């Protein structure tokens, strides 16, 4: 008659024994229980099996050197080991915090470089200034300033990430906008490529004004009326900006005005572009095409006048209602 072998699931595991670490072993074998693991305070290695035999066998490696400590000397040595371990853990915690601060400073300074239209290489000069300042004012924190990365490629990456984040924020806010206007400016860069800058201004139900540069579109081939038209309306589709909410288009000059006007007249061609939200414009007059560069200020002035009149009307109607 053959005996069946016990299944693997019935084997006893060390974790199932729920062994308790005795405090007197700290002083006796210079080990301590940290995060449910037995750690040798001498060599900082983990004793995998928390049994007395394994702890004692591990201590045998250091016995000849540390058995000489007895009584108060041994207690002081244990305190020294525990204090050293805690300092080591604090150091490892402090390093990530310093690195996080250095990365944050790198983003902030990269944003300032972009806002002031400075070349990316300015980052190296700024870092040199920071280090020289730290050497005089706070030499103890010099290493933290040295950890700030402001290399040309790093600054370029930081600015790209910030731009992507801004684009995502715009997409989140767009559904709350009631009306919007765009301003287009065509210019040529140092390489001879035409660049079409599209600015965006909108307001929500609470009359909060939001404006931002949507995108700079490189016109790689030609800048005909069709090229400008397709580029602008593809950009509006990208950001899910519906034409029924478009109140005005501001342009930089007569040539651009003609391009947009001619495109708006050709409603049939707009349908051929397969842009879902195109088709709301029945006449050219439905969208105001302006060439005045001060359109934003004019719009803001009209908004303030309308807001005052609107508040006055509400107050008057409220007063009439209370009188009844």
Automatic annotation (TrEMBL):
It comes from the Eukaryota. Pfam families: zf-C2H2_12 (PF18658). Residues 35-81 form the SPIN-DOC-like zinc-finger domain. PANTHER family: EPM2A-INTERACTING PROTEIN 1, GENERAL TRANSCRIPTION FACTOR II-I REPEAT DOMAIN-CONTAINING PROTEIN 2A-LIKE PROTEIN. This is SPIN-DOC-like zinc-finger domain-containing protein. It comes from Cinara cedri.
